[in-house]
Amino acid sequence: MEKKELIGLSKSEIEEEILKLGEKKFRSKQLWQWLYFRGETDFAKMTNFSKELREKLAENFTITRPKIVAEQLSKDKTRKWLLEFKDGERVEMVYIPEEDRGAVCISTQVGCAVGCKFCHTGSQKLTRNLTAGEIVSQFMVARDTYGEWPSPTNEVRYLSNIVVMGMGEPLHNQDNVIKALNILTDGDGIAISRRRVTMSTSGIAPKIVETLKATGVRLAVSLHAPNNEIRSQIMPINNRYPIEEVLKACQEYQAEDGSRYITFEYLLLDGINDSLENANELIRLMKKYHIRASFNLIPFNPWPGCCFKPSPSQKVKAFADALEKAGFAAPVRVARGQDILAACGQLKSKKDSEQ
Ligand code: SAH
Ligand code: SF4
Q1: Is residue 169 in contact with ligand 2, taking CB distance under 6 Å?
Q2: pLDDT score of 153 more than 70
Q3: Whose CA is nearest to atom 13 of ligand 1?
Q4: For residue 352, what is the enclosing H or E element?
Q5: What's the CATH number where 140 sits?
Q6: pLDDT tens across 40-88, in order?
Q7: What is the pTM for the complete model shown?
Q8: Residues annotated as part of the active site
Q9: Can you give the pLDDT at residue 101?
Q10: What is the 8-class DSSP label of residue 159?
Q11: In this predicted structure, what is the pLDDT of residue 342?
Q12: Is 201 in the pocket of ligand 1 (CB under 6 A)?
């Protein structure tokens, strides 16, 4: 019989497994702590278990991390991993350090079915969803790398934030993403605060509110256009869920709790969506829906075979200034890790073509 993987099981599922082994319930709490608080991968080292229980666990279960196929460290300390799962499928993960904290960017699917025209992952089609365990274990690899087990309490924590902005559309893999986010934010384990986790979606409108309610994480929406005409041109998903539907879901989410700000990501593509007129239309749109929002202006990261060009810096600045004058925070994202193929999907493509 194939051994069962423990990483990715919920608290109640771990409890069930422990009871099935004929053990007392409190053992499942201890096991949870070994897995997610200490990051232990070896049953033999679980010292508060009897030898008999350690052996029973090893006979029945596995604790797996994805394999690191490639790892690159940029001059600016951005780190990128190419990770491989049991079936050989691969995704990328990136760590973006800031002064006294840092965000780990994790993936939710191999490829993506949304097919945004500017996105390298979108050009790779969808191969499969990641399991909850595969989503959680990416972050565990980052903790292994930086030696952050068990979680430090006072010192600087480098891996303080999680952004679900890697490969894939999280709301096309909703159940596994919800399960994974609840494991990552559980206070007895990895314990990343829910307010420090941001999930980005291309706007699968009917699933937004439900997912946020089930996880309590922050929302980022890839808007990228001030109207349906431009958005449909660069994001075909807009034909299915047009801007109005996405913004209504955002309104509904904010209606529950006035303190929730939404980040709108806006990729600036030369001559497509970056004029002053586009900025003004965007401001009118936000005011019409009364959405409390900040923007994240993203310089386009070009990749071979893509037809778009990044906006020139004067246009980016004029766009940001217009939003700021209207009262919206609109920082321009600094491009990181330029020397290590940091545009999402590029490292995977390079390695795939070398095979
Ligand atoms: N599928 C989700 C999350 C992953 S993509 C989503 O689309 O929101 C994370 C962010 O990277 C999105 O805002 C996406 O639009 C952006 N992105 C995609 N391709 C890019 C590129 N070539 N340059 C810069 N940002 C890109
Ligand atoms: Fe998928 Fe996001 Fe890329 Fe669009 S931008 S193709 S939704 S990963």
Answers
A1: yes
A2: no
A3: 222
A4: helix 346-354
A5: 3.20.20.70
A6: 999 999 999 999 999 999 999 999 999 999 999 999 899 999 999 999 9
A7: 0.95
A8: 92, 344
A9: 87
A10: S
A11: 56
A12: yes
